[in-house]
Amino acid sequence: MASMLESVNTPDDLKKLSIYELEDLAKEIRTFILKNVSRTGGHLASSLGAVELTLALHYVFNAPLDKIVWDVGHQAYAHKIVTGRRDRFSTLRQYRGLSPFVNPKESAYDTFVSGHVGNAISAASGLCEAMRLAGNPNKVIAVIGDGSLSNGLTFEGLNFVGKREQNLIVVLNDNKMSISNTVGALADYLSRMMTSKTVRDLKEEVKSRIRKVPVFGDRVFRLVKYVENNLKGMITPGVLFEEMGLRYVGPIDGHNISHMVETFRNISRMKGPIIIHVHTEKGHGYKPAQRDPEHYHGVGSFNLKNGEPEAGGRKQTYSHVFGDTMMSLASTDPRVIAISAAMTAGTGLKKFAHAFPERFYDVGIAEGHAVTMAAAMALNGLRPYVAIYSTFLQRGYDEIIHDVALQKAPVVFAIDRAGLVGEDGPTHHGIFDIPYLRCIPNITLMVPRDQVMLFHMLKEALKIQGPVAIRYPRGAVEPNPLEYKGLEIGKAEVLRDGDKASVFCCGPLCYSALEATRDIDGVAVIDLVFAKPIDDHAIRDFVAKTSGRFVVVEGSSVKGGIGSSVLETLDGMDMPLKFKLLGIPDRFVEHGSVGSLTKLLNLDAEGIRKAVKAIL
Questions:
Q1: Catalytic amino acids?
Q2: Domains of the chain by range and CATH?
Q3: CB 569 within 8 A of CB 539
Q4: For the chain: N or C, fewer Cβ within 10 A?
């Protein structure tokens, strides 16, 4: 039997199929996703849950003329497959392969960059205005996940959309909220019935007649509307959206293509802002992912038969070390609490959450709230550790300055996924944290070279009466860590002495620097340990000792990073300098394995060796 999927190269091909054929196609796509993601790794559970929803959207609407904006790009695998990228799907997340998320540079069907949850409503709102001003009658559809509803930007966007009465269709893909079968089925039926043309025409006729009643028409209309909303609220959870000015439809069964197609067709003829509540299941169609959707949110390669990671997939990571250290700290200090922003497992806090439920807070995708809440806690006797990925902490930047640093609140930021993160690409690389943090007064910024240093830094942070940030990478810990020799605030550690050239480094790249210089005589390797306060004395002493020859190696942006700090320290030093700054260049780095990207950027041992030899 010929594969139906092979005949689908654009959404137009979908429109030639019957609903029953779409259901068969959904099964093929789910199998195709599983086969490929088991090899490449990726965001599996959410994409498996959004297959039927994707097919129904493209079946009814006319992308790319109609604009579909994905809030969570990791739900868009089926979207990629049916929009001409099926043949390249095996390259997903690989260097120079398909982007892990939605990227307009990759396809005309990708309307707006999607990597951080929460931007879709605002982006879609902007599209509505741009299309209105251009006289473009096409539709704008924003697909958001239930996690987006914990994000402030989503509600800012919804508030504007409702007030502006924009012609925006919002699809809320709810794969978390519990809806009972009875209520869900009733709401599904009523939603399809109430959006039908017959009922819509009847409602408009009744409204018109009521409003024409002399004197009391408007009052009666408001009363009828009030009763309608309350009746709707008894069956559906949509009153909040109705109050914001959006017409609420749902919940709809997100795995019933026929129901979704009927609903989408109905609302495509309606004016004004509409939100369609679609209920899906994470990991749908693959039992391991259905049983443990949190684990399968983002996975490496795995055995398709049993869902187990490929050999070597369960190594100890820096996140594990953080989680274990937090358990130790909390067991001896009742002030210690942990805060996560929808990344409990990812940041290593799952055990902590079970062991200390009263001292653990998962605030959802609300990083700004996490930071300000932590500030208030810290100023009232607690010691919060806020565990957030580097790229996501950017979303709480104003709060770090205004609420934490300005008040010298003793908040500890555990910055996970710092540096290159590999296959998740430019939206997720944690390469800006050192530049965006070191310019803020009152912050102590630590950069552990290995898991031993991370453990001691997390303990030391409790003693510091002010904000502390500790950045550490994604992935496996150092197999052969150096002996721990103590930690003194603002003091560097000399890993190897020398008088011909200096290599200043911090973080795990210190090991690359040691490897790069092991066969070059006279090269000193200095672990700066702290990005702030930086060890001015050690830098000046070694630059003088090595006749102005030095290399700086860092895993963050060169612009405003450690190298910039070293040069600031050397300002006014009366001697010629010959130096190289190695780090992330002034561009967004593509996706690919950490090893391939490190080599590409000359941050591997060979690249560092070449830089050292160039200054000798």
A1: 282, 367, 395
A2: 5-196+245-290 (3.40.50.970), 318-471 (3.40.50.970), 493-615 (3.40.50.920)
A3: yes
A4: N
